[in-house]
Amino acid sequence: MNYCAVSSGNFVDEFGRTLLLRGVNLGGSSKVPTVPDGRTHRSEGFYNGSHVSFVGRPFPLEEADEHFSRLARWGQRVARLLVTWEAIEHGGPGIYDSEYLDYLEGIVESAARAGILIYIDPHQDVWSRWTGGDGAPMWTLETLGFEPRNLHASGAAMLHQEMGSEYPQMQWFSNHLRLACATMFTVFFAGNDFAPGILAGGEPIQNYLQRHYFEAIAQVAHRLTRYANVIGFGSMNEPGEGFIGLAEVSTIRNDLLMPGLAPTPFEAMRAGEGLPVDVTRIGVKGSSLRPTGRARLGTPGVRAWKEGEICVWRRVGIWDIEGGRAVLKKPRWFAEGAGSGFGADGAMPAKGASLRAGGTTHTLFNERYLKPFVQQFAARIEAARLGKAGIESKDGTPSTSGTAARGLARTLPFMIFVESSPLGEMPRIEGIPRLVNEAHWYDSLTLTLKRWTGFLAYDADKRRLIVGPHAIHRYFAAALLRIVQHSREHMGGCPTLLGEFGLPYDINGGFAYQTGNFSAHERALSTYYDALDANLLSATIWNYTADNDHAHGDGWNGEDLSVYCGEDGGGRALRGFVRPYAMAVAGRILRMRFYARRGRFELEFVPNHGINAPSLIYVPMLQYPRGAFVSVEGGTLSEERLKIENVKTFTLPPMENEGFIVLNIRAEPGSELCSVRVDRADA
Predict the structure, then answer these.
(1) Please, which of 11, 80, 221, 293 could form a disulfide with 384 given CB 3.0 to 4.6 Å?
(2) Does residue 397 register a pLDDT over 80?
(3) Cis ω on the peptide bond leading into residue 192 (within 30° of 0)?
């Protein structure tokens, strides 16, 4: 299956069959370089940002066939392949790592051999490694005047590399409220409005940064356009909103709170100038996130900026230092700088409120900044597909690598996968061909507290606890349904692929590592996949990290969400996510459900008799260790592997755990409904 297109809100193959794409993110450690070892618990070479290599992420090329073969056996037929801007352009503006691009081609070729589709995820979290996450090269920070070596001490970022074992669990996200991350996202998306006159190389900072970002990802598109199994590109993983749209720089942004320090923009600016301040600390209190006290941010005299550089927000006049004291000059700048920060009647937003422009501050970000960014990104990726000018090689001359592929240009444009800012609102974007909504969703209680009980969940939208297994099942299914409905109603009816979901494997105090018992993980994953099935959703689980270990997890900020770990013998909690599902259906799927405890899989679909190809059902024998009974109504089975032809019922024999059968179902002439059922032999 190396072909995937979009039609009527679905993924389809060359025969017109409806596809459900189930797969993984590759991989957690792809956020950091292999040379030097960039896993975040290590600090050696961390501040030498230009001399790095990401070759070997997500795994060494010589191991690729083994990993992709394993994923194929597990029924994971699509991979969201993480690629960071830093990996491509770490050497400096316009200097591209050709060795890394060669490596990516090898990875894609290996995936194609295993029949696995790829879409490229330009990944970032809180902007860069030097602002607490991953993504952008160090030179982007330096271009604006930041001194990366001072970001942690000045309070402009919180870094695992600096804190070591004292790094607090699941608090990297709070960097969205720190000076460095918030500033970079503000100027990247909205520098023309909020940082007028701030230039890089004689060019407005927004234009400069976006141009380099587009060209870096276009390098990848140019290299991979000849590979049929590369189906598309994400525009950016979890783009941040920075300070965009905030009505008051002296007020906490309550809509982006997570455990950790939560400075106001003005507090973050002052700390970054070497003027420490006491800021609010957020924690879990009762059943919600609330202020739990105050803590000091910053270090006296340690500035986030290079020697001789002035804070960009002082340069645009938001604040200044007078008589040794910080003085706020333009408290409403991020509401008014956009030029339309007033209501329809010209009234100012209420104090402490976010800018309203047809909705919330998220709406402003999505409409005014994210939408045109995605449109420009899609246009640049399409130009790269067609081999048009604009791509440069390491020495700045037009690239000749892959020139032969220009004559083999794809007959279809790449799909463009789009997501919103974390904890924001999904964007309303239409008019982009082959658009895909790749929203993310996590069971927030399990993710942040690393606890799975089976009877407690947290609804982040309504800020309330969900109690009871049945209520949790309904809530998870309803949460995913809202994503599907948004795609239909506000994104031109485009397909939906849940780009990320998953759970930490060190839940419940890492109990499974001591006992080898991953049953709690299996139950949690089964609940998530039940919600996917209820909505007939394609999805890629976070994540598959080939070098995951118990001590350092995925190698990034203490996270440990990999479905694979060599120390656990390979796959972890396989029964939770290696499940039967309809891979390709010659018709319209009505219902799909897997009852894990009973070992029963059910599928119903309305056949399209104009499609001359069978429906394909993936059946992992891991779920059927003693074999299974298969029955079909309204169709017949045709199993070449088992020499079965034109029957309605047969028995699958036992096989090894990682073995699988792909059932071929052909609708009977004139049938209006087909149903398939697989029952565990010992059920």
Answers:
(1) 221
(2) no
(3) no
